[in-house]
């Protein structure tokens, strides 16, 4: 909170005979009251007592006695529709969902996007008020919070109920955006951009996605939904998705939400959002094959351009063979903040230490 200074002009008297004042009172009026004087401290103490008696603490202006500046609290009423309208460029948004512990990853991710000149269309969906305020303080209008706020302290351990609660909000965010009429690219922030991905979003498909499997595919592999694995479902990554505002994309998102509702987290079955996304892709594809309606148009992005971490960081031969083809690399197949940061540093992808000035957030 900014420092508060109390200023008081010298007291002016309207008496016709100023000399009638007692010498003591006269001397008092000649000394300005400061916050550091005995009188100033008494005045300040009295003011605090009056506020405590006559104004309930719940009714005090937010930020008066807190670290949140009042200028930032306006973002509480900032809506997704307002944010999308402000941020979108050519009808397209790039979206991520972030809680406070992931702010360093957000900053690192933004540097790669800024180098490709797409940062102005980034919208950060803040999962807590600290993230909402910190991003909008540095980069006004580029963060929005969609209530309710989840318990972000329990949302970081993969496989936990908190993680499920956190990630299961993703399809609802994306559905809200496409229903507003925007194209939207979703990324997890443990990714790094090495090139511009938009030239790879060719055609007018409904949903674009990447394979999360590590086995090497041929460079000319099919762009259809891959066949199911031994578990009976595909293994598509829910961390890099591009959707157009089409009926097919909306159907996939609604089916994804239904799958999450039907298969909630439990101690016995520690679910996350990705299996539900795969079931949704498979169900909508089969549903449309037997329907008179148009088929949902799905598109698998090229593996060489969008490799999973299980391939890029574990197959040096493949990396050399595909050098120059890599566009977005996902730092998955590893758990833990520090391990992810170390891996990025080892490969020269932890940019935020030396190049934070290239991020619209600067140094956080």
UniProtKB/TrEMBL annotation:
Ranges annotated as spanning the membrane: 35-57
Superkingdom, taxonomy of origin: Eukaryota
Top EC class of this enzyme: transferase
Cellular localisation: Golgi apparatus membrane
EC number(s) on file: 2.4.2.-
Transmembrane found in the keyword field: yes
GO cellular component assignments: Golgi membrane
A Pfam family reported for this protein in Swiss-Prot or TrEMBL: Nucleotid_trans
GO molecular function: UDP-xylosyltransferase activity
Alphabetized UniProt keyword annotations: Cell wall biogenesis/degradation, Glycosyltransferase, Golgi apparatus, Membrane, Signal-anchor, Transferase, Transmembrane, Transmembrane helix
Membrane topology summary: Single-pass type II membrane protein
Chief location of this protein within or outside the cell: Golgi
GO annotation terms (biological process): rhamnogalacturonan II biosynthetic process
Residues in Nucleotide-diphospho-sugar transferase domain copies: 118-344
SUPFAM superfamilies in the cross-refs: Nucleotide-diphospho-sugar transferases
Family: Belongs to the glycosyltransferase 77 family.
Name of the protein this chain belongs to: Glycosyltransferase
Species of origin: Punica granatum (Pomegranate)
């Amino acid at each position: 909170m900014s420092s508060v200074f109390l200023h008081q002009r010298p007291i002016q008297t309207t008496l016709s005979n100023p000399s009638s004042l007692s010498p003591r009172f006269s001397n008092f009026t000649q000394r300005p009251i400061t916050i550091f004087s005995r009188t100033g401290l008494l005045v300040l103490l009295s003011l605090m007592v009056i506020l405590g008696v006559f104004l309930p603490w719940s009714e005090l202006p937010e930020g008066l006695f807190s670290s949140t500046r009042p200028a930032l609290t306006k973002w509480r009423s900032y809506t997704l529709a307002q944010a999308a309208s402000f941020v979108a460029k050519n009808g397209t948004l790039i979206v991520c969902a972030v809680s406070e512990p992931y702010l360093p990853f957000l900053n690192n991710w933004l540097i790669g996007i800024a180098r490709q000149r797409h940062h102005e269309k980034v919208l950060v969906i803040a999962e807590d008020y600290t993230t909402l305020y910190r991003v909008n303080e540095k980069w006004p209008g580029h963060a929005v919070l969609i209530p309710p706020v989840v318990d972000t302290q329990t949302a970081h351990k993969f496989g936990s109920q908190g993680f499920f609660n956190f990630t299961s909000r993703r399809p609802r965010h994306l559905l809200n955006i496409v229903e507003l009429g925007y194209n939207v690219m979703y990324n997890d922030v443990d990714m790094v951009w090495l090139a511009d991905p938009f030239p790879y979003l060719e055609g007018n498909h409904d949903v674009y996605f990447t394979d999360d499997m590590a086995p090497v595919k041929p460079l000319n592999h099919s762009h259809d939904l891959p066949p199911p694995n031994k578990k009976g479902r595909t293994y598509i990554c829910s961390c890099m998705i591009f959707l157009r505002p089409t009926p097919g994309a909306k159907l996939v998102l609604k089916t994804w939400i239904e799958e999450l509702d039907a298969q909630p987290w439990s101690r016995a079955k520690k679910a996350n959002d990705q299996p539900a996304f795969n079931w949704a892709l498979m169900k909508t594809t089969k549903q449309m094959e037997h329907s008179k309606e148009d088929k949902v148009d799905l598109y698998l992005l090229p593996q060489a351009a969008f490799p999973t971490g299980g391939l890029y960081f574990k197959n040096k031969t493949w990396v050399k063979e595909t050098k120059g083809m890599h566009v977005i690399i996902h730092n998955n197949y590893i758990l833990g903040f520090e391990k992810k940061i170390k891996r990025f540093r080892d490969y020269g992808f932890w940019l935020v230490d030396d190049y934070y000035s290239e991020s619209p957030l600067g140094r956080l």
